[in-house]
Amino acid sequence: MTTLQNRPNTALLVVDVQNGVVGGAHERDTVVANIGSLVEKARHERVPVVWVQHSDEHLERGSDDWQIVPELTPGDAEPLVEKSYADAFEDTTLETVLSGLGVGRLVVAGAQTDECIRSTLHGAVVRGYDATLVSDAHTNLYWTNHAAPGRTAGTVEAKDVDFGGTS
Questions:
Q1: 81, 10, 94, 87: which is closest to 51 by C-alpha?
Q2: pTM attached to this predicted model
Q3: Closest Cα partner for 156 from 87, 111, 109, 98?
Q4: In terms of CB atoms within 10 Å, which end of the chain has fewer, N or C?
Q5: How far apart are CA 154 and CA 71, in angstroms?
Q6: 65-82 pLDDT, tens per residue?
Q7: Burial of 58 (0-12, 13-18, 19+ CB in 10 A)
Q8: Bridge partners of 110?
C-alpha cells in the first residue's frame, strides 16, 4: 500500500481529455466513453474525481482545443488542476488537492500516455502514491509491469476498476 501517511483514500485522476489532445486519437470515442463510465462509477461510489487540464503554446488556455471534450463534464465540486508540464504534479496544486482529500492511491485515465500520463504516473510513484493506469481509458499501453518498493502500480480495464483498492 501507499507509503504516504494518513492517505487511505483513492481518487480518479482524469488527465488531458481535451479537444486538441484526443481529437485524432486511436479509438477516441471508445476511450472517451470508458473514461465517462469511470467518472460516473467514481461519482456513484463517492470517490473524488480530479481533472487535469494542460495548456502550452500549442494548446492555448481558453481555446476550443484546450476545452475538455464535450462528452465529459467536470462537476462543480470536482477539483480542476491546470498544468503546463507533462507531470501533473510539476508546478501545480495537484499535491495540495490530493493531500486535502486524504488520497494515497490514484486511478489514472486520460490522454497522451507517452508524455503526460507516463510523466504523471512516475511523478505519483516517486512521491509515494500507489498508481493504477486504466488500460482501456487512455491512448496507449505502458504501465502494465511498473513497480516500486512499498508501492503498487499496474493497469486494469475500466470494467474491473475497484476504487476500494483491490485492483
A1: 81
A2: 0.85
A3: 109
A4: N
A5: 27
A6: 999 999 999 999 999 999
A7: exposed
A8: 15
